[in-house]
């Protein structure tokens, strides 16, 4: 139901959103939520086929959606991708950093290449895209940056040595960007999901006993669903979040506080 009251709090009408990782899993679900709340969304990831399919599905759901392919682990490709977004669609008002990777070797076997790649995609790219788009949002006096962190920002979980570090860094980046740009109308927050079935977690979900054990450790008694993030993402990227900034909001069924 759309009413003037709800629109003033939550509508993303007239806003442009760039969603990295928007072709799959949580990023795709958040892109659809933003699109359904009125934003024109641009999806960014590496593979054109899933990007095209996701954009098509979003359009079928009534959203304005398009995509740009870029490898965010490569700084030159990231710059070129960001330039293409601006050239084709204009400067984004909303940036959602959902692209992420999680190699899971035991800590002692984690290679420097895996470490570097995890940091490049999960932490450097959100920083670089923030540098690219944050100052413009501040100059225009309105913007929203939403990083997708993880409950692993505050706990160790299943051979995710580099991943947890990157997500803890993302929570700190959230505060630093919020400090820089909040007084200019740019709210910067992170959303931390719990444990959700996506291609990223397929290997862990392959073990039903472990999956069930994780569900039991949450307060809600279940693992996350892709639909669980829509309301928080729309709120944190919308007008109602103008005084909510620098925060990491855990949408994890209480997992992080057990
Ligand atoms: N699933 C969970 O339980 C969970 C929990 C907490 C946090 N998260 C976070 O949620 C976010 C989304 O994860 P997900 O579970 O939805 O995973 P997913 O379904 O595997 O999606 C990952 C997305 O990132 C993109 N991507 C990966 N490497 C990239 C690169 N180098 N450049 C550009 N795009 C890249 C992928 O597309 P391409 O492969 O085509 O590039 C895909 O769109 C991640 O930040 C993840 O850390 C997930």
Description:
The protein has helices at residues 4-10, 25-36, 48-60, 75-89, 112-140, 161-181, 202-205, 208-217, 230-236; strands at residues 16-20, 40-45, 64-69, 94-97, 143-148, 186-193, 248-251. With 258 residues, it is an alpha/beta fold. A seven-stranded parallel sheet has the order 3-2-1-4-5-6-7, with helices on both faces. Strand 2 (40-45), helix 3 (48-60) and strand 3 form a beta-alpha-beta unit. Helix 4 runs parallel beside helix 5 (112-140) and helix 5 (112-140) runs parallel beside helix 6 (161-181). The relative contact order is 0.14. The model has no long low-confidence stretch (mean pLDDT 97). The structure holds NADP nicotinamide-adenine-dinucleotide phosphate (NAP). NADP nicotinamide-adenine-dinucleotide phosphate is lined by residues 20-21, 23-27, 45-47, 50, 71-73, 98-101, 121, 148, 150, 193, 195-196, 198-201.
């Amino acid at each position: 139901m759309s009413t003037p009251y709800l629109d003033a709090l939550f509508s993303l009408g007239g806003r442009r959103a760039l969603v990295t990782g928007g072709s799959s899993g949580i990023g795709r679900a958040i892109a659809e939520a933003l699109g359904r709340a009125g934003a024109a969304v641009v999806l960014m990831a590496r593979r054109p086929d899933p990007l095209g399919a996701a954009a098509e599905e979003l359009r079928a759901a009534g959203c304005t959606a398009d995509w740009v392919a870029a490898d965010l682990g490569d700084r030159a490709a990231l710059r070129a991708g960001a330039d293409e977004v601006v050239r084709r669609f204009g400067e984004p008002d909303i940036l959602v950093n959902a692209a992420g990777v999680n190699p899971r070797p035991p800590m002692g076997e984690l290679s420097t290449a895996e470490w570097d790649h995890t940091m490049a995609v999960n932490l450097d790219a959100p920083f670089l895209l923030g540098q690219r788009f944050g100052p413009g949002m501040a100059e225009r006096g309105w913007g929203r940056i939403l990083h997708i962190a993880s409950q692993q920002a505050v706990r160790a979980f299943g051979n995710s040595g580099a991943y947890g570090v990157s997500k803890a860094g993302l929570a700190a980046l959230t505060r630093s960007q919020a400090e820089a740009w909040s007084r200019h109308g740019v709210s910067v927050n992170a959303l931390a999901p719990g444990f959700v079935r996506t291609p990223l977690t397929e290997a862990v979900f392959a073990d039903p006993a472990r999956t069930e054990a994780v569900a039991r450790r949450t307060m809600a008694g279940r693992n996350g669903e892709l639909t669980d993030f829509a309301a928080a993402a729309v709120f944190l990227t919308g007008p109602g979040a103008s005084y909510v900034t620098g925060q990491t909001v855990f949408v994890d069924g209480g997992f992080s506080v057990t």
